[in-house]
Amino acid sequence: MRNSLFRNPRPWLMLFTGVLFAFFLVACGDDTPKQYGPHTILNTAGPVAESERFLFYIILFIATVIFVLVEGILIVSIVRFRRKPGDGEPYQNHGNLRIEVLWTVIPALILFIVLGVTINGLFQVSTVPPGKSINVTAIGHQWWWEFYYPDYNITTADSLHAPVGTVVNVRLYSNNVIHSFWIPALTGKTDDIPGHNNTKWFKADRTGVFYGECAEFCGAQHAHMAFNAVIDNQDDFSTWVTTQQQAAVVPDQGSLAASGAKLFVGICATCHGIVGKGTGYMSGYQDPTVACNDPNVACKVGPNLTHFANRNLIAGGVLVHDHDQCTNPDNLTNCQLAQWLANPQGIKPGNDMVLGATLKPDQIKELVAYLESLK
Amino acid sequence: MATQTIIESPSVAVRRKSFSETYIGEWITSTDHKQLGIMYLVTGFFFFLVGGMEALLIRTQLAVPNGHVLTPQEYNQVFTMHGTTMIFLFVIPVLAGFGNYVVPLMIGARDMAFPRMNAFGYWVLFFGGIFLQSSFLFNSAPNGGWFMYAPLSEPIANCGGLHAYTCTNGMNSDFWLLGTLLLGISSIAGSVNFVVTILKLRAPGMSINRMPLFTWMVLVQAFLLLFALPSLTAASVLLLLDRHAGTHFYVAQAGGDPLLWQHLFWSFGHPEVYILILPAFGIISEVLPVFSRKPIFGYTFIAWSGVAIGFLSFTVWAHHMFAVGLPPIAQAFFATSTTLIAIPTAVKIFNWIGTIWGGKIVFKAPMYFALGFIAMFLIGGLNGAALAVVPFDYQMTDSYFVVAHIHYVLFGGTALGIFSGIYYWFPKMTGKYLREGLAQWHFWLMLIGINLTFFPMHLLGLLGMPRRYYTYAGTVGWNELNLLATVGAFILAISVIIFMYNIIVSLKNGQKSGSDPWDAFTLEWDTTSPPKKYNFLEIPVVRSRRPFYDKKNPEIADWKTVTH
Q1: Which of residues 125-164 of A touch B (CB under 8 A)?
Q2: A17 with B324: Cβ contact below 8 A
């Protein structure tokens, strides 16, 4: 038996190939949304992604029909026209102009129908609809996203906040390499190219937290340049804006957080800005697209941390920030912020957070206490 | 010793063999198109193994979430070199190898038009390839992707960076730029030679519209290379100037434009895609008729659709750039040209099926691979057409969906075509068959491997996995599909090992094939296997598209029954 399998593997391998394809078809047909995972383009939450998904379904349908037809004809002709013992030479057919014109024209017609739908969809997703809107500048860094709201003069990192049902006009800015802005559930990609200031828009139809990621290869940590789109209702969004506009909370004298604040000014403030009063603090938010091109302004390399405690991602999404895990200074085992402070280069090799000396456990406790107080 | 000295006394001295007469020396100094063809094939296949190792490293790293096989810096070098190696050092040399070996024989010539330039082209490729791969020894393999986008490929100072880790340190990009310049020189030399050989050295009676389709496709490919490569050369030279001479062609902060690189690169890069597939189309168009025992169905349509693809391939480059923020009207233009180029491609597939239809199919290794080519290339065409749907492309560009697409085209298409060609012409090159049983294992494992590796990548794209991520979290639903793809990659590796074993045992004691093992139609079979240095004792006279068929079937010769 083993010998015959070796000599003539064809039937077995054909069977296996068939099973494989059947499996893939089942995998494609399985339409249970919750199994898609959080990054899928198929669970859409806004009109742009919806148009894009609609076009996918159209082309998927057409491609599937063509696939089945052509592969079907191929298989039929393979089976039907195999040479049998005693067969002579077949009829020497050199071609048939009528048939060839036909199978040039038919695919051309199908393709032009697809093209019509494509161009229609193209103009649809590039036209900004009327209605209320907000403006956000998305700044691509190596490797994290910064979001500046020119209308409110606030800066935040890793999470783009926007109200539901509102057009979000995004201006894409980079002063380093090319990045690409992608929120699969809300909108396809637009590149963030130095000197180009591309714009794009999207709108969310429901509240929720949607994953975003960088989609243009941008160096060593391209894989860790994620962000969140946090879509709130209008009131929650307004509250968030008001909170962000406040200066940082000053910790109580003598608290753990107060020692952390001192450490912060000594160790972290070179790269991380916090809006507040006193030495080492920033007097207000800066527009990074302006400040970082002005040689007279001390532009910060790292994200602004004024309201860090409200964020849910750390360092371009390489870790998750869970406030509840970080409130007990004696048990920071599950506090990913503490892990990050202990070993930023181990967790995200090549990133800009290079510490002069590894932080001691006590220092980490104090810094965590301070950062968690920055509501 | 003493006795020997006496025997070798000057009076009976034998002239020492000159270097070019030794076995090695004969190959190294050769200007024979057949030897150079084999050298191209062997070199290309060596780099296929190198690129395959790099692919296995990638798939091992991504097999499970949070993989630690490679550091991010190493991963970026490995995936850059995987693409660069497979495109510039595997596909192009192997196709050049087939062209070199087969085209002069097919058109009834004694050699290429410029034999020494032919050798020059090979050796530039050889050293260019070694130069590129040697970058690993300096731990500076190119790491900016095979597309080398500026400003990531610029030095730190030109990249507007405020801090370290921006852009590319070291010589990584220089290795790529200089290496591909060398390979470009090799390709230009090869292409000029193909154009002149095909246009000037055809046997009497072989008019352009009687040329074998493989020769047609090599001719179109040679023209594509000649017109596409200058764009890459210009782009590379500008980047080298940026890197070393203080210019700022691609530096936005100094008034340059990063998009200039993309336009120049893809003006080369998209014709390049057809450069990589057209000769494979040609191989399929030779194999299918012979093993269906029929002439090709619609010769004219296949030949001219190849020419149409050649022209149109220069008008579609920005479909790689739908996300860069071009005006919608420009995007509509490139969507239209991409739609147009799909038409001649579809025509070819139908004509191939038309060739099989009504035939008496002989199932031998070359035919398996040719049929596998049609089945897989169709998928690569359909998912490619899907990517031309611009708004869908916004979602899928730079995701694993695109990785699936290029691999169905380049592995399912080009590589299967190449293997078909190897099984088809190996008896001509060596006088021996490759073993059929091993070929079957090779084919079926490869077919399974291709689909297991690359089909899940469509789904990964739809699940939002971007390309060129060195790792991923375990919580986002990409685990199973990635593991599946890795399993598939190792099945592909096994199939390639079987192929290599087959080559070795068949070279050693393969079954003798004779000069015309497949009862074929074209001139390369109308001479000994392997052919003598001069190819043909007498230059054949051609009266139709199937000269050797005519010779074997004088009663029903094509020139008696059809007019072309």
Answers
A1: 125-126, 142
A2: no
Cβ contact B72–A349 (<8 Å): yes
Which string of b and e fits B358-368 if b means at least 16 CB within 10 Å?
A: bbbbbebbbbb
Q: Is the peptide bond before B559 cis (omega within 30 degrees of 0)?
A: no
Nearest to B51 by CA among B81, B24, B26, B27: B81
Q: H or E segment at A172?
A: strand A167-173
Where residue B148 falls (left for φ over 0; alpha for ψ -120 to 50; beta otherwise) is: left
Contact residues on chain B for A198, CB-CB shorter than 8 A: 324-325
Q: Does B526 touch chain A (CB under 8 A)?
A: no
Instruction: Kindly state the tokens that stand for B189.
Output: 């030399």
Q: What's the pLDDT score for residue B2?
A: 46
CB pairs under 8 A between A and B: 344
CA B543 to CA B547: how far, in whole Å? 6
Tell me, letter by letter, the H, E, C secondary structure of B513-536.
Answer: CCCCCCCCCCHHHCCCCCCCCCCC
Taking the CA atoms of B63, B66, B72 and B76 in sequence, report the sign of the dihedral they define: positive
Residue A160 forms beta bridges with which residues?
Answer: A229
Tell me the pLDDT tens digit for each residue of A178-202. Answer: 999 999 999 999 999 999 999 999 9
| CA A146, chain centre distance (Å) | 13
ipTM summary value: 0.92
Taking only the tens place, the pLDDT of each residue in A295-339 is 777 778 899 999 999 999 999 999 999 999 999 989 999 999 999
Partner A contacted by B161 (CB < 8 A)? yes
Q: CB distance from A16 to chain B under 8 Å?
A: yes
Question: B330 CB near a chain A CB, below 8 Å?
Answer: no
Set B54, B174, B242, B272: catalytic member: B272
Alpha carbon B562 to chain centroid, angstroms: 35
H-helix or E-strand spanning residue B238:
helix B213-244
State how far the Cα of B362 lies from the Cα of B436, in Å rounded to an integer. 13
